[in-house]
Design goal:
The chain is mostly helical. The protein has one domain. The chain is 58% helix and 0% strand. The protein is extended and about 70 Å long. It starts with 29 loop residues before the first helix and ends in a 22-residue tail after the last helix. Keywords: Coiled coil. InterPro entries: MGP1 (IPR031432). This is ATP synthase 24 kDa subunit, mitochondrial.
Length: 221
């Protein structure tokens, strides 16, 4: 699994064509060339990602910080080599798209919560509750809703939360680890379902229980 997506390569069918000495092939249309280039680019990215995955042993253990960190680093290498966007970048794009027309801070924060839930991320630190609490305090002092274009008010909110611009790379790194953990949990869930299904088959009833952490993902690529 590369970010839960699949690349489907269509089969090519050979069509018999009669060739005539004076007949030349029709020139390629601009649209056809563009589609071909897109296909080749996706194919190259897919092959690059699979090639890198085959070189790394990934331990399916979302509860082991070392396994989560290693998986996150592998995914980062794949993104860099295959020129892919990170999950945090995808989430940031979703945030920008879905919150562009939201004027107030409260609706903005509630929308962030919805995006987090849809992305399958957990709020382990209770950050959302802290943000709402800080917002309540500021709006009480302002005696009105905090608007996002209120620079002074937003600066106070960020200061209340202890967020500094220079710390943003650290937050992004934590987000990437959270995403890696969520992806490993999904892999573990899929693996456990596959093991359970296989154990019910007659030919595997005498086999011992398989530990998910012992599986080598490279054998299934």
């Amino acid at each position: 699994m590369v970010y839960g997506s699949q690349v489907l390569l269509q089969k090519e069918y050979a069509v018999p064509v009669r060739h005539f000495a004076k007949e030349s092939a029709p020139p390629a249309l601009k649209g056809d060339t563009m589609l071909k280039n897109i296909f080749v680019e996706l194919k190259n990215k897919y092959e690059t990602a699979i090639g890198l995955l085959k070189k790394e042993k990934i331990t399916i253990d979302p509860d082991d910080p070392a396994a989560v960190s290693h998986y996150a680093n592998v995914m980062k290498t794949i993104r860099e080599k295959a020129n892919l966007s990170s999950e945090s970048q995808h989430i940031q794009e979703s945030i920008e798209t879905q919150t562009a027309d939201i004027p107030d801070a409260r609706t903005y924060l509630l929308t962030l919560k919805e995006i987090r839930i849809k992305s399958g991320l957990a709020d382990d630190l209770g950050a959302e509750a802290l943000m709402i609490e800080a917002l309540d305090k500021i709006e009480k002092d302002l005696k009105k809703p905090l608007l996002r274009n209120d620079k002074k008010g937003m600066d106070i909110l960020l200061a209340e939360l202890g967020i500094r611009e220079e710390d943003l790379p650290k937050y992004e790194e934590k987000l990437e680890l959270s995403i890696a953990k969520a992806q490993l949990e999904e892999l573990k869930k899929d693996a456990l379902e596959a093991i359970e299904t296989q154990s019910k088959r007659e030919e595997f009833k005498d086999e011992g229980t398989v530990d998910v952490k012992s599986l080598d993902v490279r054998n299934f690529i």
